[in-house]
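Example record used in the benchmark description.
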Amino acid sequence: MIEWYIYISWIAVLTISYLIANYLNTHTLIFAKIKTWIFLLGPFLLIFIIGLPMVIAKVNFNITLYATSYPCMFFFGIWTAVFLERWNKWKEHKTKKLKEAKFNNNNNKGTKC
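Model output (structure tokens):
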């Protein structure tokens, strides 16, 4: 039964961090200058920085799990918000380029001899 509480709390942390990051990204553009690969490595670096010393010191598994999982879920929520925002920008840019290319091809067909 305790697994459900852990799962629900992970989803809550993930959702809250996603909403906070989405709000900050759209209103303040705080994440605009940070590269995408840094966001991708963030949760995994956190696991290594916090979890690896705990595993080496043979700390109880539950303590290690709780100490690493909640910060990782928080960073996964931030990374998801930033990634989706950048994906949407890339997709809009790509469709704009394709529309321009199609428009140029249609205009060039009429000028051929």
